């Protein structure tokens, strides 16, 4: 009976290892949040409260202190690799041909995903104008490894 357990375990590992390796470099999730003048995106942990607060900040730009893109990503740790998160914004001031670009260098963890915050302060947000669409990509040099984008991109 022991040999049957070992055989099942070996078959399971043979199936799971390629799947873990294939999805190694990727942008998992992007959450754009408006920030108030105190740097908060919500007043309480409730998702309903967060959505209501975000709607209020969108309606009243005088209470908006910036915009933050919380990005969850995962990448393999490889030597001689220069990873960066690359945010492109299409706004009323920056058309799709010349989007507003914000980049941040990142270092991958060994096993788990990481969260990185790409932030625009109030002055930057006012300068770029109203945001129409966005795209966040994980890059190694000039090569795009993975990306997430808004519906209108």
Ordered list of secondary-structure elements with their pairings:
Blueprint: H1 2-22, E1 26-36, H2 47-59, E2 64-74, E3 83-91, E4 100-105, E5 114-121, H3 122-128, E6 131-140, E7 143-149
Description:
This protein is of the alpha+beta class. The chain has a single domain, classed as Immunoglobulin-like (Sandwich), CATH 2.60.40. Helix content is 27%, strand content 41%. The chain has a four-stranded antiparallel β-sheet, with no helix packed on it. The radius of gyration is 20 Å and the shape is elongated. It starts with a helix and ends with a strand.
Radius of gyration: 20 Å
Give the strand content: 35-45%
What would you say the CATH architecture is?
Sandwich
The overall number of domains is: 1
Spell the H/E element sequence.
Answer: HEHEEEEHEE
Secondary-structure-derived class: alpha+beta
- Low-confidence spans: none
Outline type: elongated
DSSP strand tally: 7
Q: How would a textbook summarize the main sheet?
A: 4 strands, antiparallel
**Order of strands across the widest beta sheet?**
4-3-6-7
Q: Gap between N and C termini, in Å?
A: 56 Å
Q: Quickly name the level 1 CATH class.
A: Mainly Beta
Q: What is the CATH fold-level name?
A: Immunoglobulin-like
| SS element count, helices | 3
Tell me the helix content: 25-40%
Oligomer: single chain
Arithmetic mean pLDDT: 88
């Amino acid at each position: 009976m022991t040999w049957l357990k070992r055989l099942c375990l070996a078959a399971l590992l043979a199936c799971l290892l390629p799947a873990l390796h294939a999805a190694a470099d990727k942008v998992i999730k992007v959450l754009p949040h408006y920030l108030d003048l105190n740097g908060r995106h919500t007043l309480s942990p409730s998702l309903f409260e967060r959505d209501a607060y975000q709607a209020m900040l969108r309606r009243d730009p005088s209470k908006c202190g910036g915009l933050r893109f919380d990005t969850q990503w995962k990448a393999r740790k490889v030597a001689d690799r220069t990873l960066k998160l690359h945010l492109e914004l299409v706004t009323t001031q920056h058309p799709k041909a010349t989007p507003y670009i914000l980049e941040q260098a990142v270092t991958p963890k060994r096993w788990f995903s990481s969260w990185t915050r790409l932030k625009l302060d109030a002055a930057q947000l006012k300068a770029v104008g109203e945001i129409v669409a966005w795209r966040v990509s994980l890059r190694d040099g000039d090569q795009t490894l993975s990306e997430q984008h808004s519906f209108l991109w």
